[in-house]
């Protein structure tokens, strides 16, 4: 049999992982990336002497990365040094409460008790209640495809028993009463584009994923991890085409037959799309059935993000700040509704402040700091005057940082860069400029999410944030594992029929 050729669209972590897996399986893989460098959401921005992580800043479940290197007899730790982050996060509210959270309950529990003594027992009860969610949702089902309704029906009784129909906020609220502590243990769905008031309780498992496998940061930034995966793919014989956008997925006789990339027709035996799921079906595939188009346009999508990158001419960071800092605004539930439902930029906000030099001093030029500030904002299904609103929002963000953490912060800024919903829409090609594709609601999870294998185009497969199991580095790496399993099975079937 001739060596089969597979095209992978997009070099985010999902696309890179799928390309490595399939190349290691003996296929000839061509990976097309529209940007001039690999990484997708995890790309690096270079501004003057500074290099900024473009997206993800947290590595959890690192064994999923280790698997990719083990496929070729190599070791992740020989290519990338993952540094432990401790604390995982430092969390603040508007009333002066603080929680330094890591994977050790003995460290977290006294802080919980000091804030609200009755919640100490509640926190332990929450950990016990979330354990089955981790076991079922991540360990047992995370790498399993949901291609048929029967796949969902098979696990529905277990999900009902685990109360997966509840929201994360309601699930945690059963055990933890203090408003600040509820925020501390329900914010995780925001890291994968989820509304904590709507995201299925199954995503409470994220807390335990971090607790069991830790939170890590690659020395040299996320670019070192992206570069290591790209190099691994190249060492296997894979071909990476940078600055080469895919304009269309070719379909012949109901089967994916290749792509049109930068105006050139590239034939293939199968196509794996790491492009945004909605974009794949609404823009890249002309044969998408009208019912699928209607479903996708009516689905619930994640929020977007406004991120400001600052290069600072100082070697000092205030003691109050850790590597990962989450600052909650005076409102929580109503602010979330402003972002996801009312789709407005409110006067108040919550933010994530990333200070990588706390873990990796090489994250900035010598004697300087490179950090970013992220604020969740509505996606482009809104009528916001974006430039004006984002300028005002940045001023409020800077004022808060100076008032609460870093006096004189503005005077240290020597370079700055911003991304916003238009970056996600235009540069990354996400539908509505979302940061994470579809929301992880129960009715948009597992079988209800765009499948890893297209149900109406043979030979077309999906990986990444918009397909099963969802966003976040563990989710997209698992999607690649699922896709590999299905592609290999389908290609073996094609050979048998031949």
From TrEMBL:
Positions in coiled-coil regions: none
Entry cofactors: FAD
Pathway connected to this protein: Carotenoid biosynthesis
Pfam families: Amino_oxidase (PF01593)
Domain Amine oxidase, residue spans: 14-483
Record-linked PROSITE patterns: PHYTOENE_DH (PS00982)
InterPro entries reported in the protein's UniProt record: Amino_oxidase, Carotenoid/retinoid_OxRdtase, FAD/NAD-bd_sf, Phytoene_DH_bac_CS
GO terms for MF: oxidoreductase activity
Keyword terms, alphabetized: Carotenoid biosynthesis, FAD, Flavoprotein, Oxidoreductase
Family per similarity comment: Belongs to the carotenoid/retinoid oxidoreductase family.
PANTHER family according to UniProt: B-CAROTENE KETOLASE, PHYTOENE DESATURASE
Protein name from the UniProt record: Phytoene dehydrogenase
Organism per entry: Alicyclobacillus sendaiensis PA2
Name of the coding gene: crtI
């Amino acid at each position: 049999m001739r060596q089969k050729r597979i095209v992978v669209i997009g070099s985010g972590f999902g696309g890179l992982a799928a390309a490595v897996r399939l190349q290691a399986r003996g296929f000839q893989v061509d990976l097309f990336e529209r940007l001039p460098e690999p990484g997708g959401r995890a790309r690096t921005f270079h501004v003057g002497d500074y290099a900024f992580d473009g997206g993800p800043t947290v590595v959890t479940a690192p064994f999923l990365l280790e698997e990719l290197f083990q496929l070729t007899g190599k070791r992740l730790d020989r290519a990338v040094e993952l540094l432990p982050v401790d604390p995982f996060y430092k969390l603040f509210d508007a009333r002066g409460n603080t929680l330094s959270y890591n994977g050790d309950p003995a460290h977290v529990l006294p802080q919980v008790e000091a804030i609200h003594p009755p919640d100490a027992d509640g926190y332990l009860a929450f950990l016990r209640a979330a354990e089955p969610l981790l076991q079922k949702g991540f360990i047992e089902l995370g790498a399993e495809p949901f291609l048929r309704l029967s796949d969902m029906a098979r696990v529905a009784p277990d999900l009902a028993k685990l109360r997966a129909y509840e929201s994360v906020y309601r699930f945690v609220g059963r055990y933890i009463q203090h408003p600040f502590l509820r925020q501390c243990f329900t914010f995780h769905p925001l890291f994968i584009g989820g509304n904590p008031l709507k995201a299925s309780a199954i995503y409470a498992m994220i807390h335990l994923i971090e607790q069991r496998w830790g939170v890590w940061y690659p020395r040299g930034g996320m670019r070192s991890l992206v570069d290591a995966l790209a190099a691994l793919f190249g060492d296997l014989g894979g071909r990476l085409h940078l600055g080469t956008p895919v304009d269309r997925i070719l379909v012949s006789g109901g089967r994916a037959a290749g792509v049109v990339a930068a105006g050139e027709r590239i034939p293939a035996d199968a196509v794996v799309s790491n492009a945004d799921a909605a974009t794949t079906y609404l823009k890249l595939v002309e044969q998408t059935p009208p019912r699928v188009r209607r479903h996708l346009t009516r689905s619930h999508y994640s929020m977007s993000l406004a991120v400001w990158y600052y290069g600072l001419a100082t070697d000092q960071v205030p003691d109050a700040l850790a590597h990962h800092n989450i600052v909650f605004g005076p409102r929580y539930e109503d602010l979330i509704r402003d972002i996801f439902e009312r789709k407005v930029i409110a006067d108040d906000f919550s933010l994530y402040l990333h200070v990588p030099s706390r873990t990796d001093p090489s994250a900035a030029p010598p004697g300087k700091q490179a950090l970013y500030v992220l604020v969740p904002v509505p996606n482009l299904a809104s009528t916001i005057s974006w430039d004006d609103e984002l300028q005002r929002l940045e001023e409020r963000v800077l004022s808060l940082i100076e008032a609460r953490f870093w006096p004189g912060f503005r005077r240290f800024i020597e370079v700055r860069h911003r991304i916003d919903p238009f970056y996600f829409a235009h540069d990354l090609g996400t539908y509505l400029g979302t940061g994470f594709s579809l929301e992880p609601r129960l009715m948009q999870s597992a079988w209800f999410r765009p499948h890893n294998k297209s149900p109406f185009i043979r030979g077309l497969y999906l990986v990444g944030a918009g397909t099963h199991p969802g966003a976040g580095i563990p989710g997209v790496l698992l999607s690649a594992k699922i896709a590999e399993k299905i592609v290999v099975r389908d290609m073996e079937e094609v050979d048998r029929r031949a």
